[in-house]
Structure formats: C-alpha cells, structure tokens
C-alpha cells in the first residue's frame, strides 16, 4: 500500500531515498515522469524486421525459387488475334434530330450481332472440321522437365528413352494424323503410337487389348468389340522407339472449348471494330485455327448477302430456256400462217384490241413471275402474295373482255391476232426475264459484304506467358510481404517488449541497469555444442563481445550500488524460462571474477539448473547435499572453475523441490559463505513458475529481474514485481537481455539510475 506522502500513488515503482555513495548529488524529489510511448512505434517495427531478417529472407528465397522453377518449367502460352471492321448497312442514310437522338439510346448494334456470329457453331465447327482439331497428338515427354529440355534442343531429333528405358522424346519429334475415329466409349482415352523402323508404327493403349502395326500414309480400319477404329498417320518425324500420345476428343466438346477460349471484344465505344484473341500452347495451331475462323466467317457473311440474288437467278436460269422455246414455236406458227394466207391488213379496231390483249397478258405474266419470286420467300397467305392474286384476277377479267371482243372479228383476223399476240407476249416476257437475270448476275458478282478483315492473324513469335521477369519480381515482392507479415504477426501474438525504454515507461522509473545485445558469437558457439557437452563461456572465450561489454557496464553500476545492500548476495530471477537467465548469470560471474573480485556462483534452480555444464563439472555434488547436511560445505564447492570464481551446482535434484530451500541449513549456508567472498551470485527458477525465487530473494541483498526482448511481456514484468512485493521484496532493477539493434541504431548500452528499486502499488 502506498504511503500518504507518495506523490505518485498509481506508479508501479519508486526510487529509494537511500543516501547515495561517493559524491553523486541526491535529489529527494521523485524522478520526472518519462515520455509517453508514441502511438506508432516505428523503431520497434524496424527492430522486429531486423531481428526477423533471416525469416523474411528464407520465406522470400523459398517463394522466389518456386517462382523461378515455375517460370522455367511452365508451358509457354501464345496469343494470336484478328481484327474485323463491321460497316453500317446504310452509311449514307439521311439523318435528322429524331434519328440522332435515338442513336444515343441504341443498344442493338451490328457489331454485337457479328460478335455472336463469330462465336457461333456455324463458324467454329467448320474450322474444327477443316483442321481436325478433335484429334490431339503430342510427343510423350518426361514428366515435369521433359518439355523444357525439348524446347532447348532446337528442333533436332533425339534418342528416345531415359538410360535406354521407355520411349520419352527430348527433341523436335512430330506426328501428323488426318484420320482418327474410335467408338464413343473410347473418346478422351490416351492411345500410343510408337515409331518403328521402315516408316512404320505400332498403335496400342487406351486401356484396351487392341494393338497392331501399320504403315505411315495408309488408312486402316480395325474392328473391335466396341466398334470400328479408323486411323491414318500422314507423317511421323521421329527415331524408332519414340512414343506419341494420341487422343480422340468429342467434336462438340472441342467446339465448346474453342468458343470459351475465344475472347471477342469491340474496340472503343460503338466503333464497329471487333478484335478476336485466342491463346494456346501451340503457336502454329492457334494461328491456323484463328485464320480458318476468319476465312469461314467472311465466306459465310458474303454468302448470306448474295443468297437472295442467287436463288432468284437460279429460278430464272431454269425458266429462260423454256420461254425461249415457246417464243420460237410461236414465231414458227405465225410464219406458217402468213405463208399460207398471205399478208392480212387488220382494221384499227383489231389492232387496238390486239394491243390491249397483249398488254393485259404481259401484265399477267409479270404478275405470275413476281408471284413465283415471292413464293421463294413467302407463303400463299402472305399479304403481298394475296395482293398479287387480286391483281391477277383483275387482269384475267380484262383479258376475257378483250377476247370476247376479238371473237367478233373474222376468223382469219382472229388467227392472225392470236399468233401475233403470242409472239409479242413471249418476246416481251423473254426480254424482261433476260434483263432481270443479267442484273442478278451483276449483283452476285459485285455484291460487297459489310464486314472486312482489317488485320489477319499472324503466327506469334514469342509467348505472352509466362512472363518470367514479372513472375520473379512478384515472387520477391510477395516473399518480402509474407515474411514481413509473419514477422509482425509473430511479434503481435508474442507481445514481447522490444525496447528497454518501454520497461521504464511501464514501471515509471529509470530502473533498467543495462541492455544486453544479442550475441551472434554465442549463437555460433552454441551450434558447435553436441548433446550434453560443455557449454561455451562467452566472457572467457570472446571477452570483447558486445554482450560481455554490456555486462561490464552492469558490473560498474552494481559495484556503485553494493555498499547500500544489506549483504553481498545478489539474485538473478526471470519471469519465465527462456529469458537467458543462465547465460547472463554465468557470464556476469566470470566478468566480476575477471575484475579481481572473489565470486561464488550458486545454481539454486533445483528444477532445471544447468550452470554446471559451463564448467564441465557434475551436478551430483552440490547444493541439495549441502542443505541436507550430508557432508561439510567444502566438499561441494568447485574451486576456481574460472580464476577467482567458485561454483556450487544444484546437486541431485530433490523430490520436495518446492519446500527444500526453506530449510534452515540454506540460510546458514549463505551466512557462512557470504563473508568469504566479495559477491555471492545466485541463479533461481522462474518467478512465475515456482516460489523458490521468493525464498532465495528473502536472503539476498539485491534482486534483479531479467527481461528478454520480444519474449517478456508487460504483464509478466508487472506480475513478477507484484509477487516480489507481496513477499516483502523490492527488485533492485531490470536487466534487458537479447536486444537486437536495427541498422543505424545506437549500440551504446542502456543504463539508468543505479540505486533504483521497484515496488508494486497496491
């Protein structure tokens, strides 16, 4: 509980008012509050990235290697394209305000219809049939890497097989098959064509017992229980033993796959320019396919435009010979009549009647012709055809009336009028039909389609996929991002403190005696340790290591503060395991001994003590036997394990570890040994896992907490201080271990007020 005069009742710690030593001025006022931690700790994130540099580098390296392998082994993908321009049917049509306004809301354009026609089965199926794309033939490459090696071979033939086994090909082997039909139940099955000497091959596979030899260039039909197998291999460019995989796909499935693969877009807004793209692994194949689709589309488009004229011309070509014969027959009869009766001079009325009759019959024949043409497109019930029928009835009535009038003429005049009329009618009809046929021929020849092929497909020279530089660059960026994300996530989940200043902000006092940097030399030395071998003592092997230098700084601060302690016993305790307590304790003991001080190191961690491994001694003769009073203390002290340093190991680990250190002999042991040394240093189990540290701390003159960067959390520190305070103990300060300095960060050891003690406010 805080006292009434405490100016900071909510602080976790305060500086003792113990008079300082030497000439350091003492200020009884409490220390100024430390600056608050910034909302965004850029330095902390930088430290995290620097500490996790190997993790980030490893993740980046793995992803980059995978990306490089993919970029090298992935099959190249090529792209071919064509461009078509669709023109409006009536580009010179007059425009007005209404037509221009309606164009703003027009949603159905000619280009849209042509885009759908390009993708239609009518066009694609012809291209598939012409190129026989449902037959798939490919060389049998070695899995994963075989195709890559084949691409590097420059198209030369290879020796089939791997170490003389199998028929894998490694070069530019090719096979061309023009006919391959199998029963429906065998579709999409892989069959094998194996090259043989003498321009022959063997057909087998498909999970069936079928197998036969054949000659290249000949067509074979082989009956099987499932149906007929038909095959013709036109060309086989391979050495004997090379194998090819052949598969007959569904025709409909092939058409649908091509329709799905085609990317058809209109360039610009309502421009009428259509671009068609097609991607595939075979550059020649997609070029041939897209070229065939373009040709077939243009042919069908033009045929659609001239279809009506061609149908009418075909009808007229059938009728013209018949009319010509009829006209010749009429002329022959008229000539015979004149030869037999001489020339007849008809009266004006007869000539007028004949003229009217001829005109009426001409109109009737024209109506018949027009009706015939209309029936090619419409039915008898169509309004246009019905109107023609009504006109024809009117003409028939007119003809009947004229015929009645002509019958009143003399018989000879009637005969002449009839013959002359037949000639005139047939002549006019034949002439009209001949003119119409000639016009239709001109239309068929000169008709131009409203679409034109602007850019024909060109065989691609370079693949568009994979883009190897881009893949590698994205892999590096992705690796760095994932590595950074994992490092930051690990730090957030771990929640460890990464800056000694955060400890002081947490405890509201300058209590960090020293910050001990991470030692790369210690890592190298520890990697050389095998099994239960001797652990390296860094302060003795590499005394100039930065971690050892920071312990020397702590030595100076401790020597300054020791006159104020009630005894020369110092205890190191950590909140949990893994904070580097053993490393700090044993190396600090060696640093103190190197300064000429007589130091006793006691391993009081009766649960997992391992300090004996630093000196290569056994733990059996140690603290547990000394406390038990089995033998004199002198028998358990290992003298001069390092110059001026004596050591007492844990001894045989007792069964009642929780209560063992409460034995009165432990206090007697410390009281006996303390006067013989300048410093007694004790290593204890973790504070938050066992009560042993509180028992030892009650007999120590100073207690120091150990915190490890990125491992020890705020809650662990505050909980450790609270437990020590509840036991009547005030930690002297904190040692911040294993700090990692980022690039450009100062490596000066962090120090604070050397006489601070921590108390937990109730």
The fold-level CATH name of the domain at 508-528 and 545-756 is: Rossmann fold
Q: What's the pLDDT, averaged over the residues?
A: 79
CATH architecture tag of the domain at 508-528 and 545-756: 3-Layer(aba) Sandwich
Structural class comes to alpha/beta
- Placed side by side, the strands forming the largest sheet appear as 14-21-20-15-19-16-18-17
Largest sheet, strands/sense/barrel? 8 strands, mixed
Total beta strand runs: 22
**Ends apart, CA distance between termini:** 5 Å
Top-tier CATH class of the domain at 508-528 and 545-756: Alpha Beta
What amount of the residues lies in strands? Answer: 15-25%
Helix content: 40-55%
Which of globular, elongated, flat, extended, rod-shaped describes the shape?
A: elongated
Low-confidence stretches: 1-34, 91-99, 101-108, 743-757
Number of helices: 23
Compute the CA-based radius of gyration: 53 Å
Let me know the CATH homologous superfamily of the domain at 508-528 and 545-756.
P-loop containing nucleotide triphosphate hydrolases
Protein name: Wzz/FepE/Etk N-terminal domain-containing protein
Pfam families: AAA_31 (PF13614), GNVR (PF13807), WZC_N (PF23607), Wzz (PF02706)
Keywords: ATP-binding, Cell inner membrane, Cell membrane, Coiled coil, Kinase, Membrane, Nucleotide-binding, Transferase, Transmembrane, Transmembrane helix, Tyrosine-protein kinase
Main location: membrane
